[in-house]
Structure formats: structure tokens, C-alpha cells
Amino acid sequence: MATKHRVLEILEQNRGASISGEHIAAVLDISRNIIWRAIKDLRHDGYVIAAVTNKGYRLDGANDILSAEGIKPFLRPSLSADMQVYSEIDSTSREAKAQAISNAAHGTVILSDCQTDGKGRFGRAFFSPPHTGLYMSFVLQAGIIGFANPTAITAYAALCVCEAIEAACGIQPSIKWVNDILLHGKKIGGILTEAITDFESGGTHEIILGIGLNVSTPPSAFPAAIQAQAGALYPDGNPPVTRNQLAAEIINRLLAPEMPGEAELFARYKQRLCMLGADITVTQGTDTYAAKALDINETGHLIVQTDSGETRTLSSGEISISLTV
Fold first, then answer.
1. Which of 10, 147, 268, 323 could bridge to 152 as Cys pair (CB 3.0-4.6 Å)?
2. Is a pLDDT exceeding 50 seen at residue 317?
3. How far is residue 53's CA from residue 255's CA, in Å, rounded to a whole number?
4. The pTM is what?
5. How large is the average pLDDT for residues 280-301?
6. What pLDDT digit, counting tens, does each position of 49-77 carry?
């Protein structure tokens, strides 16, 4: 680890408090001059670090630069995750998939400040501008994650994101089946689940779980085509928590040592669904029809009733749903 990252880790662990250069030097076993150069490099990277005579260095609490050093202080002490943080990447899921093929460990997390080619479901683009969002992908071993049902994995991720937002921000988002995170009727995030299968056996080896979340993206920043539907946790800016804190909350939940059974999972997931009882539009391939969302079944599939009175059960990966009321 580069010296500036080691210094940053200490500053992040003591965010808002002054830490003497002497203390940092003793902990890292380096000279005060090397510390000064590391502080200079961090300031060049955009960190606001005050130097107070006879007190030391203080990382300003408003810094919101995504980093592994900024995430670690908020992780569970027992959690061991390989975190890789980029300032820019084409797609965190694409990188996670490449690393999974190269035998990346379960729980590897790829995060980036922005994506140049972020992906959503059905090959759609996911708008991923710098400094205002949280874009992360996990490598999950199918034998460890504990869910055989693909819908359960997506539902679990959506639930983890909602519960992390509620814990960190005091905000209660909802879920639009199967993978959209909504707040005040607008999409603020989404989940993309992809499986890596063995060609010979046909079995699933790894799951690539991608999460995109708009934290402080202003309405005017979204492309015109999605401005009416897209939103953010804090569209006016100035969130009370950092993206590092929010990332840690999500990681803590997704990589928890004990996961709920599917019955408990779908019960909690159902409580977050925003469209049960509502009139919806179902798009299945080239077929589009109106229906009412009735319920989800024990495997998380959506039960709907068409205008003709026919009851249908919709599985994940086949449909997209948009609210009409």
C-alpha cells in the first residue's frame, strides 16, 4: 500500500479529529517529512486536510471521495473483503466478471466513482456520472451465497440496499419488482444480477451482483430521456453521510455471515414493494398489456391479473414493469 493510502487510512479512522504528525510517524514507522509529502499528495487528490499548529492534521468531515480507506472504518470488524476502488472504470460488473473468471475470492468488491459504460438490465445503459453516485459490483460464490433461486439473490440485494439507506440516512426507499430502488416515485438505483456458468456442467459457479445508486445526482444532470423517471437520495446535494459510509452499510449486509431463509427474505422484500395492488403495465418481449399487481409467490415471482381476469405468474429476467398509477 502506498504511503499516502496508509496515511489516509489513519485520517479516515479519525475523521474530524486532529492527529499529530508524530503519532502518524510512530504508527507507520516513517519520517515526518514523508508524512508531509503524503498529505500534499492527498490534497492534490482533492482531500481537504487542515494542518493545525500543535494539534496535527485533520481530515475535514465533508470529504466525500470514494476510497477503500474511507470505507474500512465502517465495516464490521470481522468482515474480510477485497475492495478495489477506481476513480473511473467502464463497468464495475465487467471488471468483477473478469476477476471472477480469474478465480477472485467470494466477497470481492469493485467500486468506482464513475462508469463510462455502466449497464442495467436488458442491455440498457446505467447513467454513472462522477462524484454523485455509488457504483459497485460483488463477486459471489454460488455455493456460499446461500440462495439457489436467482430471484432471491436480486431480492436480497435490493433489500440490503434499502435497509442500508434506511440505517445510514433515515430514509425509507421502496422496491419496484424486481430490482429497481425507488424514492418518491423515482428510480434512484438498480440491481443487475449475472451468473457465470460452467460450460461443461451447466452449473452456476459465480454470481456477479451489480448495484448502481444515485446519491446526490442533481435532476438536471440526467439525460433528457430519463429525467422524468430518475431521481437521487439527495437531489439538492449535501448528503449527511458520505458515499463511503453508505457503501460500507451495503457491504456489511450483503456479506453478512448469516443470511435469512427465503421465506423470511421474501416476506421482508414484499413489505418494501411499492406496486402491489396497483395497476401496472407489463412488457414481456414484444407483448405489452395492462394488469393489476396482486402478490409475489414463495419464489419471488410476481402474480398479476390481466384486464380479462386471467391470473399470470411472472418470473424474473422476462419482463419489465412500469407503474401507471
1. 147
2. no
3. 42
4. 0.91
5. 90
6. 999 888 999 998 888 999 999 999 999 99
pLDDT digit string (tens) for 87-130? 999 999 999 999 999 999 999 999 999 999 998 877 788 999 99
Measured distance CA(220)–CA(227) in Å, rounded: 7
What's the CA gap between 68 and 62, in Å, rounded? 17
Segment 314-325 shows an average pLDDT of: 57
What pLDDT shows up at residue 323?
Answer: 46
Helices vs strands, H then E, count in the chain: 9, 15
Helix ranges (H only) for the chain are 3-13, 21-28, 32-44, 68-71, 92-101, 142-145, 150-169, 243-254, 262-272
Which residues pair with residue 190 across a beta bridge? 180, 212
Rounded CA separation 44/39 (Å)? 9
- Return the C-alpha cell found at 306: 390481466
What is the amino acid identity at position 152? A
Q: For residue 170, give the C-alpha cell.
A: 433515515
Conformational region of residue 193, where left means phi above 0, alpha means psi within -120 to 50, and beta covers everything else = beta
Cα 239 to Cα 132: distance, rounded to the nearest angstrom: 10
Task: Give the closest residue to 158 by CA, choosing from 139, 128, 180, 127.
Answer: 180
Domains of the chain: 3-59 (1.10.10.10), 68-272 (3.30.930.10), 279-323 (2.30.30.100)
Q: What is the rounded distance in angstroms from the CA atom of residue 100 to the CA atom of residue 138? A: 9
How many residues are given for the chain? 325
